[in-house]
Design goal:
The chain is mainly β and about 325 residues long. It has one helix and 25 strands. It has a five-stranded antiparallel beta sheet. Strands 3-4-5-6 form a four-stranded antiparallel beta sheet, with no helix packed on it.
Length: about 325
């Protein structure tokens, strides 16, 4: 998800660039935002529509991946914040979102500004936005996930403090459930260190990336507390948000090094290959990935980018953030 940067510019309207599904390994640009934008994360609704968060504006934007002429639209706006980060589905069309404020000149987070909000999109064109809880002690609330479907517990990565927060949706109580060398940044944030980033649960494990050290997992109880020791799954740099396919393969956005890695259940790590000649430029600064949810796009990996604000390809300039479709 997010990591520090010195270049964060205001949001502008995006332009749809939809194309029909192509050969496996092809990248299809769906939307490109204005120069200087940073698309941070995404969720896919049950109807196939894509929701994206942005680091420098409080809007949640919906993108139609199926219709070429449908422009992106703002479906919810969170109050009193400069940007939104992680997003997780709580129930059908109801999403938890992390938000907070950042210094646009230093790239550092603003203390005591991070909160969890809920966006209820069940009524068309009438989103209901409400606060779940403020967490003023947090350094940053980055990735967020439910412990399991229907759980009252959320888990959120704090990349600055290097911990995992647990939030009770029913009581709004919160605490730190994981503080481990695997979640901590190896350097202070003022020196560019960034710890636990993306978080997701699967089969009784919490999986998480550490931006600087790799991909990890830890067994958890139903209340989100650890049930064992943290294990390293893959040792690499630049891990951001990630997702799983139906076979248990993990796909990790690694925008700082312009790679999307596929990690098998046997911990084999490979980089995705593409048919596009400009693939590196298209995917530079990837921030998050998610598979489609309809019959026609279950093998399509949707990708968000920051346009090269991080992970800029040599000899190129930062561009507007993109939302991409990769047909696998």
């Amino acid at each position: 998800m997010f990591w520090p940067t010195l270049l964060l510019l205001p949001f502008s309207l995006a332009h749809p660039l939809h194309q029909k599904r192509d050969a496996p390994g092809s990248i299809r640009p769906l939307v490109q935002f204005a120069n200087g934008t940073w698309v941070e994360s995404l969720a896919v609704r049950s109807n196939g529509q894509i929701l994206v968060t942005q680091l420098t504006v409080p809007d949640i934007v919906q993108i139609d991946p199926f219709q070429q002429d449908v422009p992106p639209k703002v479906v919810a706006t969170l109050p009193d914040t400069l940007g939104t980060l992680g997003i997780a589905e709580l129930e059908k069309d109801v999403f938890a979102i992390t938000k907070g404020n950042f210094s646009l000149t230093t790239g550092l987070t603003i203390p005591q500004s991070f909160s969890l909000y809920k966006a209820d999109l069940r009524k068309e064109d009438a989103a209901v936005v409400s606060k779940i809880v403020d967490i003023p002690e947090a350094g940053i609330l980055n990735g967020v996930t439910t412990v399991k479907k229907g759980s009252k517990f959320l888990l959120s990565a704090d990349s600055v403090m290097g911990v995992i927060w647990r939030i009770n949706l029913e009581t709004a109580e919160y605490d730190i459930v994981l503080n481990d060398t695997a979640t901590q940044p190896p350097l202070p944030p003022t020196q560019g260190g960034f710890g636990a980033n993306g978080v997701h649960t699967r089969d009784g494990f919490l999986y998480f990336t550490n931006s600087d050290t790799g991909f990890f997992r830890v067994p958890i109880h139903e209340d989100g507390t650890p049930a064992g020791d943290v294990e390293i799954v893959a040792d690499f740099l630049g891990g951001d948000d990630f997702t799983f396919d139906k076979d248990g393969d993990a796909y990790v956005a690694r925008g700082r090094v312009d790679i999307i890695s596929k990690i098998s259940p046997a911990d084999e790590v490979v980089s995705l290959n593409y048919t596009n000649a400009d693939a590196l430029v298209l995917t530079e600064g990837s921030t998050a990935v998610k598979f489609g949810r309809t019959e026609c796009d279950r093998k399509t990996l949707y990708v968000t980018t920051n346009g090269g604000t991080t992970g800029l390809v040599n000899g190129t300039f930062p561009q507007g953030a993109r939302v991409l479709a990769i047909d696998l």
